[in-house]
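Protein Record: Sequence and Backbone Structure Tokens
======================================================
Tokens: labelled as protein backbone structure tokens, with as many entries as the chain has residues.
Question of interest: how does this chain fold, as expressed in backbone structure tokens?

___
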Amino acid sequence: MGPEGPGRCELCGAAGRERCGLCRITCYCDVDHQEADWVSIHERICQLLIPIRAPLPFLLTQEERKQSVEQLAMRQEYVAELSHSTAQGFVAEGRHAEAIPAAMHALRFRAALYGSSSVQLVPAYLLLAEASTGAGRLQEASKYLSQAEWIVLRTPDCSATVQSQLHRALGLFCVAEGNFEQALYHLANDIYLASSTFGLKSIEVSGGYFHMANIFCHQNKMDIANSLYAEVTDIWHAVLLKSVRAQERILESGRETSPFTEDKEVSEDTMTEAQRAEATRVLNKVLEIREKAPKQQPGETARVLHALAMLYHLSMDFPQAHKMGMKAFDLVKQLPQQDSLEAIGQLLKLIKSQPSCTK
């Protein structure tokens, strides 16, 4: 294994028998764990780990050592954030098993930065729980949720945002176990806590509505489910409309800026990549339910299609945006109330103006 000794497996902590041939500092118990880590995150952070795990030079002045420690913390923070966002991306795509190694790295570096009992670790524990639940590893998910809950309970000034995230994770875990009543209890707490911080019409609250709607749909309580799906659609529709208008302002000013990146003038009306991924997953699920419903609600279906058209336009998937926009336009034309027809028509003009849009 080299002069550093056998080391421990990056994923499970067992004795290391394999070592990454590129960084030469990361060990694994077998080839399977090495491949799993490579696919999940190691390919992206391989070379970043070298300066992080290298020992500090011995002969340093006090000022040099202070600078080295600060630089190390910055590198750890960067790798932690990169690992967390990568794991979130895998979860959003339904690739839960692939998310787990990246989420483990996020947790490990957060612990190194803030300590093993810091509230800063809660998002990483919750991400690990969500990924483990999706991968069918409920025992592991329960362990991570218990750690997160313990930290929250022993943190008196824990924010409502973190508490909301915990209740949502507990709710989703209860769904996986089939305990729907307990799931609804946690999701109701999620909505209450999120709304106290972000407001009832925020996208932070919409996730709770969406998961509650899925439960009621599973229980065949479609009146309640449809009402909640409509609320979810309305929230995302409003957010996406603001983002489209923000993009129009960017284009009018001549700046070549993605509508999902931070900008001081329009940041309040733009979306992050994580929010875009959530919107894609949620709205497509709602559309699937609307289109398969025995009792059709064309007005609600058209609203979801309009929201998806705006979302795909912002994502620069113009063919898909055009397809969704045309379906929304055709549905609204058949309705007695056609209030949204002008807005959809304007969006279609905007989409058609893009060179890569094909009918």
About this structure: Residues 191 and 205 are 5 Å apart (CA to CA). DSSP finds 14 helices and two strands in the chain.
